[in-house]
Write a structure and sequence with these properties.
Layout: E1 4-9, E2 12-16, E3 23-26, H1 28-40, H2 46-56, H3 65-68, E4 69-71, E5 81-85, H4 109-121, E6 126-130, H5 140-149, E7 153-158, H6 166-174, E8 179-184, H7 189-196, H8 201-214, E9 219-224, H9 233-242, E10 247-250, E11 287-290, E12 295-297, E13 307-308, H10 309-312, H11 320-327, H12 347-355, E14 385-387, E15 394-396, H13 399-402
């Protein structure tokens, strides 16, 4: 099992520890040195042992590079992030779920295995596995383990319903996720179980959460605010804070991925907020999404057209850039809009709202009161770098902030990103 990953990122080269927000930027010469050392079974060079101590507090002295560092080759593609719905099935029945009908179907294990190799070959470093509910998929443990073995930094989006299971906790303590993002649907069993349609769900969630905290996993919480649980908003915040966990709130409900309107009645009118202005997104250029059938699209919203990644292989991704550019054009009901410069949603999201015949107030400035102030969130925080004395190596304290310019641009209000 490797301790570090050395990988190209844009025009740079990074050292990453899979379960740490901290990274180290190294020059190409040192990246190439690690490539040669891995091939020759050489021991860890002194500079790397020193960096590991200073950045992450552990000792690599005397260990072979081949066992300590997985050196990723540069892909001819620019992709560095990917998301994957391992399935669309779920053990909850939430009325606001953007998936609509949640069918448990997709690739068999051979297909999943081939897909993960294609994602790796595309250059993906940061890889998110979601669903549906990923932890209930019978192939999840093997898929999660393989993604780590291939040198990806893995994040899990989950409802936490299976986190209590000893096998899951053992997996996550052996291969620690970069982040485990858990959705919270209420602060009491009555509200949580009622919203999810799962009797006993809240108690199992709390049991699993307590185990994950005790195991020292990196957890944050998404507070999902709907018409049904809005009265527990303050209690949900207190729940997260009592457990010492960072949290974010998501209160703007979206149509289903098929443009269905069945999710919209769950919107709490008092909690509908203006999204931050959409200023562009590198969807399809630096990241992509894959559905349970292996179809790669620019993101979780703009799903068509897509590329069959399993059938076509990684070469099919060459078409995603042009697909992304065409999907972002202001067409249909948005063509010629005089407010497009300050639009709150991307064109693919606007199309879903239009197909759902949603009220304009849910997504468009034309339906919003003039006096309402938008909620502004910083999507690309300032880089935080600690230079080393006299060296061409830099410690990056927050790799998420550092790489934000190449991440998806709708994460400000979308719990599914």
């Amino acid at each position: 099992m490797h301790d570090l990953i050395a990988a190209p990122y844009e025009d740079e080269h990074l050292l990453l520890r899979p379960d740490s927000p901290r990274a180290v930027k190294i020059p190409y010469a040192k990246y190439a040195e690690l490539q040669r050392a891995m091939a020759a079974a050489d021991p860890v060079p002194g500079w790397l042992a020193d960096v590991a101590r200073r950045a992450w507090g552990f000792d690599l002295t005397g260990r072979p590079v081949a066992g300590a560092v997985l050196v990723r080759p540069r892909s001819r593609f620019r992709y560095n992030r990917g998301t994957w719905e391992i399935n669309l099935g779920c053990d909850y029945d939430c009325e606001m779920c953007y998936l609509g009908e949640k069918r448990f179907e997709g690739l068999d294990w051979a297909g999943k295995e081939r897909l993960l190799h294609q994602v790796r070959d595309a250059g993906v470093i940061w890889f998110q596995i979601t669903g549906g509910e990923p932890l209930i998929d019978p192939d999840f443990p093997a898929a999660y383990r393989l993604a780590n073995e291939l040198g990806m930094v893995v994040e899990i989006l989950s409802n936490g319903s299976r986190l209590w299971h000893p096998g899951i906790l053992e997996l996550f303590t052996t291969w620690r996720p970069a982040k485990l993002t858990l959705s919270l649907y209420g602060a009491t069993a009555e509200t949580y179980d009622g919203l999810t349609g799962r009797r006993g769900g809240f108690n199992k969630f709390v049991r699993g959460l307590d185990g994950a905290i005790e195991a020292g996993l990196n957890i944050d919480v998404s507070l999902i605010i709907t018409r049904r649980n809005a009265h527990e908003q303050t209690a949900m915040r207190a729940f997260a804070e009592r457990h010492g966990l960072p949290w974010r709130e998501y209160a703007n409900m979206s149509p289903t991925i098929h443009g269905g309107a069945e999710t919209l009645p769950s919107q709490s009118p008092e909690h509908l907020t203006q999204r931050a202005p959409f200023t562009g997104c590198p969807a399809g250029h630096t990241f992509f999404h894959v559905d349970p059938h292996g179809k790669a699209s620019i993101c979780k919203v703009g799903r068509d057209p897509s590329v069959d990644l399993v059938a076509e292989g990684v070469e099919g991704l060459a078409r995603l850039g042009s697909i992304a550019d065409s999907l972002m054009l202001r067409t249909g009901g948005c063509e010629g809009c005089t407010l497009s410069g300050t639009c709150r949603v991307c064109r693919p999201m606007a199309r879903l709202f239009q197909e759902a015949k949603a009220p304009l107030i849910n997504y468009c400035q034309h339906g919003q009161p003039k006096e309402t102030s938008p909620v502004m969130l910083e999507l690309a925080p300032t880089r935080t770098i600690e230079p080393q004395d006299g060296e061409d190596i830099q410690i990056i304290d927050n790799i998420d902030a550092y790489t934000a310019p190449t991440a998806q641009g709708c994460g400000d209000d979308n719990p599914y990103n």
